From TrEMBL:
GO terms for biological process: adherens junction assembly; bicellular tight junction assembly; microtubule cytoskeleton organization; post-chaperonin tubulin folding pathway; tubulin complex assembly. Belongs to the TBCD family. GO terms for cellular component: lateral plasma membrane. It comes from Chloropsis cyanopogon. It comes from the Eukaryota. GO terms for molecular function: beta-tubulin binding; GTPase activator activity. Residues 1-89 form the Tubulin-folding cofactor D ARM repeats domain. Keywords: Chaperone. This is Tubulin-specific chaperone D. Residues 463-650 form the Tubulin-folding cofactor D C-terminal domain.
Length: 751
């Protein structure tokens, strides 16, 4: 029975899109549990080591949490009751029912502890090598190789003399899953062995034979010979893992300096970055990160001489090639090489910094041909920050080598441009990726400058950064609002040393106390908007916060709309006793409208917000004043905004604004009625109907704008007319209203 049970504990087979075996493994665990109760301990002694190892392996390395927990419980009985399992109590404590619930913790932490007991070391390693590196689930394969890395110090000779020679042929075999896992396992084990040798003051090749070193080099050569002529999804998958191998061999400081293999590695990294378009977006990110990490490790180990410098010819070729790829018509190639430039070490950027920054800056500029290349712009902005961190800061230094007085303004201008990217396409607000990257890069560059030479940050630059962050903190998308809020508070509360020139620092620290930096939930509109609207009272932030709020208050998301609108109305209610504050707010509001005229991203929700503000009495201070300039200017801007527009949402929002403007006294009332009567004969029936309905409600709400008898007749016409009828019929009824209210009849413009 025992051999069958041991085999059942590791039974796993993929059939179609699913795997079978979890029920078998779970049942096998139950059999083990039953063994401990059915037999005397003495009868089980010949099988104890096999059963205990199999249960430990199932408890730590099984793919399914149910099986891991079943194995843990099955191990518990003989370990705790009879005490027959080696180191049973210690293992039981580390791998109890709850501890094995987390798969990553099992593979990377618990396994290392258990492998420290000699009875379990080799069985665990063998299971990973024979059963897990060729597993059908790629996540299990990758976890298995990381587990091998962590367990290597427990049995370095066994890894070097048995496991590695076993893996090297598999890494160039025909089965894709096996090859994938074997390449990763070779990379992880090699890195672990080299680290162990260095820690013990031995040569890095101490654990390797000449045959093993050649086998490691052979992996790249075999992969290239198989895939050099054709690049497909399978090839991408393998190249990704070879990039990881290159990274680990470079970090291991393998004695390959001057070897032709280095040129082959560089070719493979470049080719991986050129073929990102062939894979899915999820796999694309992994391949890009693997290639970039491999490039950084390769350069740091093999491209630097004894003086800490790069070979000029190699530097010129590499940097020039990468910068030229930034203008490739393929977006993903721009992404890959942008990130590659960001990963280059300082000695390769020395003397080439301006060339790199200019190349990355061009990627961030939106042109008609590449307006949808949001991912390329995002990666270029990330790369700019990485480059700045790599080269460091020196105020009086050369702009070819450092972030300095001559180039700091250019760097900030590029990053600040990224915060204004609101590109949308079929994927949605793709500009959000760019804005998020720009905010992160602004934070990283600013903190770098603050810690090195804070005087390079001008008051104007700091004001722009904080204002844009405040605007993003007031916008409608939770994810980007939370990121902006986090960056804003990081800069505000940074102390080593403080960021200079932050406008209204004391007021900001009062609104956002230091102790709330980690606890304030920016994702929750109910927490974020009551705080951010308080910035409307700070002159430096008012314009940008109001611009961000306009999009939120006039948006479509119910939760965001409710809390942002309520916070805005509370602020307006609080300043009604200060006419100067209301005047200043209205001037800013008109400036926002004027600057974004016909920019539908802002103007449409802004009209909706104005409709709500007028309905909630936010401007009651001006309703008693004859011909106040605010409603006059607002009417003019609304009229200009909807001119020749066919946007239903915009037109309907404007109707609400026009109806709200009727509460202001003066000559403009006639102009408002005239505009509304124009809309009563709009070509779109829905607009005619909406206008009639809202004018009716307006006359009910503001009954004092007309004499009672005229008002009743007007409401009768509005309610009795079918405003979706033919235009000549509608126009006749509209003209009756004009005559009744003594408003000039709109005239048809001859075409």
């Amino acid at each position: 029975v025992v051999p069958v049970m041991l085999k059942a504990l590791t039974y796993d087979e993929k059939r179609g899109a699913c795997s079978v075996g979890s029920n078998v493994r779970d049942a096998a665990c139950y059999v083990c549990w039953a063994f401990a109760r059915a037999y005397e301990p003495a009868e089980l002694i010949p099988f104890i080591n096999h059963i205990s190892s199999a249960l430990v392996i199932a408890a730590v390395f099984d793919r399914d949490v149910n099986c891991r927990r079943a194995a843990s419980v099955s191990y518990h009985v003989p370990a705790s009751i009879s005490g027959t399992f080696p180191h049973g109590i210690d293992i039981l404590t580390a791998a109890d029912y709850f501890a094995v619930g987390n798969r990553v913790n099992c593979y990377l932490t618990i396994s290392v502890y258990i492998a420290g007991f000699p009875e379990y070391t080799q069985p665990m390693i063998d299971h990973l090598v024979y059963m897990k590196i060729n597993h059908w689930d790629s996540v299990i394969r990758e976890l298995a190789t990381k587990a091998l890395h962590n367990i290597t110090p427990q049995a370095p000779e066994y890894m070097a003399n048995v496991v590695l020679p076993r893996l090297l042929p598999l890494s160039v075999g025909s089965d894709l899953h096996t090859r994938h896992g074997a390449i990763l396992a070779c990379a992880e084990i090699t890195h672990a062995l080299c680290k162990l040798a260095q820690d013990n003051n031995r040569p890095v090749t101490y654990y390797f034979t000449e045959k093993s070193l050649e086998g490691l080099k052979q992996i790249h050569q075999e992969v290239c010979s198989q895939h050099k002529s054709i690049f497909n999804l399978e090839c991408c998958m393998i190249f990704n893992k070879v990039c990881t191998l290159i990274e680990k061999l470079s970090l291991s400081k393998m004695p390959f300096r001057g070897d032709p293999i280095i040129g082959g590695w560089q070719w493979l990294i470049n080719d991986s970055l050129r073929h990102l378009t062939l894979v899915s977006s999820a796999a694309r990110q992994h391949i890009k990160e693997s290639a970039v990490s491999a490039l950084a490790a390769l350069c740091n180990e093999f491209y630097i001489n004894e003086r800490g410098e790069a070979d000029p010819a190699l530097q010129d070729e590499l940097v020039t090639q990468y910068v030229s790829e930034l203008q490739n018509p393929e977006e993903m190639i721009r992404c890959g090489f942008s990130r590659a430039l960001g990963a280059l070490p300082r000695f390769l950027l020395k003397g080439r910094l301006q060339q790199v920054l200019e190349g990355l800056k061009k990627v961030t500029i939106i042109s008609p041909e590449d307006v949808s290349f949001a991912e390329a712009r995002r990666d270029a902005l990330i790369a700019i920050a990485k480059v700045c961190q790599t080269v460091g800061v020196k105020g009086d230094g050369s702009q070819q080598e450092y972030v300095c007085r001559d180039n700091v303004d250019q760097i900030y201008a590029t990053l600040l441009t990224g915060v204004t990217d609101y590109t949308t396409d079929s994927r949605g607000d793709v500009g959000g990726w760019v804005r998020e990257a720009a905010m992160t890069s602004l934070m990283e560059v600013t903190l770098l400058l603050v810690q090195e030479e804070a005087e390079l940050i001008s008051a104007n630059i700091c004001k722009q950064i904080m204002c844009w962050l405040a605007q993003q903190s007031a916008e409608k998308i939770d994810k980007f609002r939370a990121h902006a809020g986090s960056v804003l508070l990081t800069l505000l509360h940074f102390d080593h040393p403080p960021v200079p020139h932050i406008p209204h620092r004391e007021e900001l620290e009062r609104i956002f106390p230091r102790w709330e930096k980690e606890t304030l939930n920016w994702n929750a509109a109910s927490e974020a908007f009551p705080r951010i609207t308080q910035l409307l009272g700070l002159p430096a932030y008012q314009y940008h916060v109001l611009l961000g709020l306009s999009v939120s208050v006039g948006g479509l998301t119910e939760t965001t709309l409710r809390y942002s609108a309520q916070s805005l109305f509370d602020y307006m209610k609080g300043i009604q006793s200060e006419p100067s504050a209301v005047e200043r707010f209205c001037e800013t509001l008109l400036k926002v409208f004027e600057d974004n005229l016909r920019n539908d991203r802002v103007s449409v929700p802004l009209l909706t917000m104005l409709d709500q503000m007028l309905a909630n009495g936010c401007f009651d201070l001006f309703t008693e004043q004859e011909n106040h300039p605010f409603p006059v200017k607002l009417f003019t801007l609304c009229k200009e905004e909807i001119k020749r527009s066919k946007d239903i949402r915009k037109l309907r929002s404007s109707i609400g604004v026009f109806c709200g403007l009727i509460q202001f006294q003066g000559d403009m009332r006639e102009k408002v009625f005239f505009q509304l009567f124009l809309l009563l004969c709009h070509p779109f029936p829905i607009i005619r109907k909406t206008t009639a309905s809202q004018v009716y409600e307006m006359l009910l709400t503001y009954g004092d704008v007309l004499e009672p008898s005229i008002g009743e007749q007007a409401m009768a016409i509005l309610s009795d007319t079918n405003w979706e009828a033919e235009l000549p019929v509608v126009r006749e009824r509209r003209n009756c209203l004009c005559d009744l209210m003594k408003v000039p009849r709109p005239q048809l413009v001859p075409k």
